Every structure is written in C-alpha cells, then in structure tokens.
C-alpha cells in the first residue's frame, strides 16, 4: 500500500500543534496567567483599542466567554472598557498602563520562547511553512 502523505501531513501537523500549544501554555502559566487572559492582553498590547467583537475574532474566543475574561482583566486593572459615542451597542477595550507595563515585562520573554522553538528552521523554511499553512487553512475554510 502506498503512503498517504496527506494523512501523514495532517497527523504531524496536529501533533506538532499540540506540542507547541503545550509549550506556550506552560510559558504563559509561568507568569501566573491563563492563556485566554494573555491572548487578550497581547492583542490589545499590539493593536491598541479594539471592540469586543474584534478582540473575540483576533483571539478565537467566542463572545459569550470573552466577557467573563474581560471582566476579570478589568477587575485586575489590566484593561478598561469605553463606550462608543456613535453606537451604544459597541464597547471598546484597551490595555491600561498597568497592563502595558506587565506586557512590557513578560512579552519579550514569551517571544523568546517562540524564537527558541523555531531556532532550527531557516528564514526561507519559515516562509514556506507560513505559505503552506495559509493555503491549507483557506482550503479548509472554503470546504
């Protein structure tokens, strides 16, 4: 029987993704945070003020669950809400100075963990992986 490279690629991708996720989860927990907390702070840290919907789409957390996480982060003083002046249904979220200081301290360490995971891969290989995974994702979205 011939080797099914699509199936093998899928299995390797899923195992690799699981290993990477576990490493990231371990790193984030070393800062006393949950992954969902870190993801929300990270997107606000890099993108600035966003709506709840934009944050939800960026971090892949559904809007029902995200409210709970935002409430916790707001109670810790790490982010704040503000209402949209033009549309009362829209709520903006932004990182506070305290949240920014926290991310200034921990994000470079987190980024180094990611750099270390990819240290054996050349720049060109990274570009190829990005391209291939984007195409696979687009194909899956369109099926």
TrEMBL record:
Domain of life of the native organism: Bacteria
Presence of the UniProt keyword DNA damage in the record: no
Pfam families in UniProt: MarR (PF01047)
Domain HTH marR-type stretches: 1-138
InterPro entries recorded: HTH_MarR-typ, Tscrpt_reg_MarR-type_CS, WH-like_DNA-bd_sf, WH_DNA-bd_sf
Signal peptide: none
Name of the protein described by the UniProt record: MarR family transcriptional regulator
């Amino acid at each position: 029987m011939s080797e099914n490279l699509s199936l093998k690629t899928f299995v390797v991708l899923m195992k690799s993704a699981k290993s990477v996720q576990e490493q990231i989860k371990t790193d984030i927990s070393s800062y006393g945070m949950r992954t969902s907390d870190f993801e929300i702070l990270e997107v606000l840290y890099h993108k600035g003020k966003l709506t709840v919907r934009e944050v939800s789409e960026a971090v892949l957390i559904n809007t029902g669950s995200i409210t709970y996480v935002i409430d916790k982060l707001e109670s810790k003083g790490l982010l704040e809400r503000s209402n949209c002046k033009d549309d009362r249904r829209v709520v903006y979220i932004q990182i506070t100075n305290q949240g920014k200081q926290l991310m200034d301290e921990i994000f470079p360490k987190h980024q180094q963990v990611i750099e270390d995971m990819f240290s054996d891969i050349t720049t060109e290989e990274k570009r190829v992986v990005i391209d291939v995974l984007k195409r696979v994702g687009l194909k899956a979205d369109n099926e």
